[in-house]
Amino acid sequence: MTAARGGHPGVMSVTSGVPALVVPPSGAEGAPSDDGVRVTVHPAEDVLLPAGAPLGALRAGLAALLRRPELRHAPLTADGVPVADADVVGHRPLLPGVTLAVAREVGDPVEDVVRDAVLRRPWLVARADGVDAGVVTGLRPGVPTTLPASPGAASGTGPTIVVRTRSRRPDRVHVRTRSGAARLVRTTAGGRRRVARVGRLPRRWRPGSRLEAAGARYTLHASGEVGRWLAPPAPAERTEPTGHGAGIAAAAVVPVVGSLVLAAALRQPVYALFSLVGVLALVPQLLAARRRRRARAAPGGQDDGGPVAATATNAAPPGSEPGRVLARVVAAHEASDGAWRRAVQHDRTGARAPGRTSGDGDGSPLGALVPDGALAVRGPRDAARAVARAVVVDIAAAGASVTVLGAGRDAWSWCRWLPETGPRAVVVDAADDLGAEHRGAPVPRPGDPLGPDRVDVVVLCLPVDAAPPSWCRTVWEVRDDGLVQRRAPDGTAAAEPLVGVSAGWAEGFARRVAGLAALRRELTSLAAADGTGAGAGGRRARPGVLGAPGADDRVAVDPTDPRLPSEVSLAELLAADLPATGSRGLTHGAARAAVHAWDASEGWAVPLGVDADGRTVRLDLVGDGPHLLVAGTTGSGKSELLQALVLGLASRRSPRDLALALVDFKGGASFGPCSALPHVVGQVTDLDAGLAGRALAGLRAELHRRERLLADRGAADLAALAGHPDAPPRLVVVIDEFRALADDLPEFLPGLLRVAAQGRSLGVHLVLATQRPAGAVSADVRANVSARVALRVVDAADSHDVVDTGAAARIRPGTPGRAVLRLGAADPVALQCAHAGTAPSAGPVVRRAPAWRAAGYPPALPPSDLTDRPDEPGRPSEPQRPGAAERLVAALREEASRRGLAAGPAPWLPPLPERVTAAEAASLVPAGSDPAATTLPLALGDDPARQCRRLVSWSPADGHLAVVGTARSGRTTTLVALARTALGGGWHVHALAPRAGRDAFAPLTRHPGFGTLAGPDDPRRAARLLRLLAAHEPAPGAAPVLVVVDAVEQLRAALAGPDPWDPLAAALAGRGTAFAVAADGATVGGLAPRVGPRLVLLGRDPHADVVLGAPSPLAGSGGPPGRGAWLGGDAALCQVLLPGTGPVPVPATEAGTETGTDRPGPVVVRPLPVVVRAATLPAPARETVVVLGAGGDAAEPVSLDVAGGALVSGPRGSGRSSVLRLVARRLASAGRLAGVVSRDADLRAEAGVAPAAVPAPAAVRRLLDDLAPGVLVVDDLDLLAQTCPVEAELVAGLLGPGGHDVGGRVLVASATTTGALLAHRGALAELRATRTGVVLHPGERGADDVLATPLGETAEPGPPRPGRGALVASGRARPVQVALP
């Protein structure tokens, strides 16, 4: 058979013979409810009574609900036991399952017959087969009892069986028949059957023998005491006749007879004395037999199980002895607490039946009953249901909860009394097939999820012609002859008598089980050898139940106790101590009444919740603490518990006495409205991991402050300062998810424990909450945190770690707030924690219990329909009303404001501001912390150890400053702010920054104290500035100099060249100049050994921050730009000061630098212009001086004196002809031009009246022949030497050494750099010797050798610019931009 696994989530059926099933929704009608105690009001009204309420408070509600006025005042009974108005619901006699009735309406309930048979009669007879098996009859001594006839027998045809126990010998039972035949059958341990007929004469009936008459079977059990049913039965071997009587007689007679025969034969009377030996040997045997009889008569000493007890107990099928199961349930229900504990202790000391294992094969509590997890009963409807009921009775007795599905669900209404705890058993009743329209969806199988649980056992009740699912291999066939064919999973089959129970019998049983659950008792806590499901052999008892294996020997705690309420209102518990509000609780109008406790409270006990007895559980942090640990998995109600605790403390103590510090590492929403309490002095979330570290440091500082305060006052602890005006409030630090906090900050937990160890006497209390207690609850935590609360946890080991018991692991999902509390060495207490958001109720409410009806009409809503539905279109949404917690917080805030009370200072510094200016920082630091004149304020720093701020300042005397950080961390802003501060302090400032960050420094260039702004894109000027600063010797009284370098790695790369001299390193090694360099790595661009203090700008990644050089405690504390770690002495977290927005004020010392005062201004290396017009240049004073363009450090007009000759070199296109045109124009205007030789017509045109020639031999010769005194300008002299070598020699011959002759002739020529370098003789060689001229593109290889002058300071990287070069005069070079002619 294949199951279809689809369809509606609430419908289940199979394609076999099983009709459709509809699963009732969680908490639907018919399911047992944990919202109250379910009882029946006679005759048949099921109601839910609130647990813990006295009956007298419920009478009016019962009368109104059921419309029975007599219930207001008439005396009532519970199962025949009179009850008083003071009796509490959930306690005896008002346990779940009882029937309440007016005393005059009913007599003794039916259940009294069973109770009398179990508790008051020495013997009990139980019907062992048939559809009404399990019916028990008690035997009263001296009174004959007639057993009821079989239901199948015709009237007058069955035998009449009379059972009687004598008054003088109540330990013996005799049976006889008045009509018909009967027999007693005993099965030996070897499987042999011994049959004894029963007639009209009485015949002894021993336990272990089965009475059979007309198809009915009965078993006999010793009864009359609770201990007989709770103690483990005797081993099977003891139930067999041992033959001790015959053996004793033989041992005594043989010696006597032998001695007499010997005396007669030998005629020696003396031998007759040997007969005394046999008599003496008989005495100890008689004594031993007597002890055995007494042992069998003692509780648990006589095996009274039927045929199953006499055979292998593990082979007993479920439901085989319902009478015995009922008797054990009744005994457990009626036993006193002492008797129950003795029985459990007897079990736990090892009283186990032989052959029983310590656990079932599959590890399930129900594995011993249904090893395969599924069982199908098939047959006629009534008989199949009776058999299935007997099986389910055993399953329920084993502690399982039962869910009934299927078309025949109405027949199982008795299951409404079974508790909803323990393993999940599903009953599928399809005995009434409603038709094929219900087929198509799957039947739940073992292991399938069912709500929050999984299915452990499935019992199918099927019609005769239905085929069970393929996964169900255990099938019982109910035959017409009264037998049941049981087919096991291995294929073996056996026919046994039908054993079933009626619905009425099952309901009586279920009511008793409901009472057991309220008493926290389970039969699985007891050892048994009957295999019927009533014992614990081979099955596990539920932890937390009284007597459960593995529970604490001293006490058992059950967080699944049905008497525990599902919800408790904190406002209601708070109001219970306030007579002004009465039982109405803290409503919106009466919320202010809570603050009266600020004046009236004594002590620190606050309500935490309600236990199973309805008592308020209180926690006193001062008396029970001083610290509290709370553990619970997601959805267990941990945050709600913390809110209730915080609100409870705030409602009892004013902000004058109580300060709350909230640390939330679960996203910042754990404390809800509690964050607005007037008691809250500080709050930390996981959104700022660095703040957590400061919080710990602040707590240490607070402890030190309190220690000093107590020492100054001579007080031993904070309590000794009560009423003193200087007494600090008690500080309660609540940390939600401290395990996550400890994972993020490994040093946090040890530091927290140190705080916990010192906090008791100093009035500092910790409340630690975590979802993962495993590993977090160390020996140190146990030593310092004595109060512990465990909400629902997923593992028993976690529960043991917190409260030393595994009970918290048994808390069911869907019950938030259910917890186990342990205070020190006291016994744990199960409670339902108070919920701050629950409004107080108007009082105990009586409700009708959900009726048990067929599921599926209407069908269950899917899970998505169970959530809140959005407002319908067109329907206005109602405004969100404040809840009970919000109203309470508002009332406390109002009262605190009325009294003028405000929260005190935080125990830790608040988060550093994300943006802070110098003016704002000055207002945040203590007085007297102004920086010295020689230091520069840099940032606002944290000093958590002293709980104050400080101004982080940099003193250049401590070394150069390194600002290290990644992109967009605030490096440039830090340098700009530093430069602005320095300018305002009279410093001279220079900035070397890349082009991307240069705009940030542009506003500062207008300040008279600002010098040079350059960067990696202008390395010539940067190098020139650094050379000037390296050679700078500060004069007395001179302004200090600051150079800020942004992106130092880029600058060093731009300055790198063939020259091994590093201008930046040399400047750092110089005197009188302070550097602040920004880098993106801890090596500071290779300058790490040359810097001193560091500012590491932090990010979110602690590992990346550590790589940058940040200390581990501060790593990862970044976020906003400018957040950094100051490493100048003690490490400190800081926020860089932002630069101002207005103009920088000019100090008086700098005000006259531009007007010619004695104090020199800053060094300025200005950039050369890209284009210079010749018309804009001034006229020179001398005739041989030519103004070539703009150059030098000031980018001013520069000139060249050509009186001694000059050489212009450079590659092609570099502007050589332009230089010669400027020279020719100037000399021609002065009348000093002798001639021009050039291919360039423009250059020849500049000659004016002077001769000009192209570089041809004839033309050059004619020009030289008529050459007048003056300056001869020759373009491309190196090319002329190649094309006109003779004429080139003539040019050299006309001139003397140095490029001029005695007759006043001077040569100014141009050549390529290569041509000039290759000239070793002639005119070019002579011109090079003058070391005067213009070298264009000085960065070209070999340019330094043209005029034998270093040109590194004048060279610029990148492609050559026309006209850009070096002006060399007598071996000294200056950069120049040649003007356009």
UniProtKB/TrEMBL annotation:
It holds the Pfam family FtsK_SpoIIIE. Residues 338-350, 866-875 have a biased composition (Basic and acidic residues). Residues 297-318 have a biased composition (Low complexity). ATP binds at G632, T633, T634, G635, S636, G637, K638, S639. The chain crosses the membrane at residues 246-265, 271-289. CDD domains: TrwB_TraG_TraD_VirD4 (cd01127). Keywords: ATP-binding, Membrane, Nucleotide-binding, Transmembrane, Transmembrane helix. InterPro entries: AAA+_ATPase, FtsK/SpoIIIE/SftA, FtsK_dom, P-loop_NTPase. Residues 614-800 form the FtsK domain. Residues 294-322, 338-367, 530-562, 856-884, 1340-1381 are annotated as: Disordered. PANTHER family: SPORULATION PROTEIN RELATED, TYPE VII SECRETION SYSTEM PROTEIN ESSC. This is FtsK domain-containing protein. The lineage of its organism: Bacteria, Bacillati, Actinomycetota, Actinomycetes, Micrococcales.
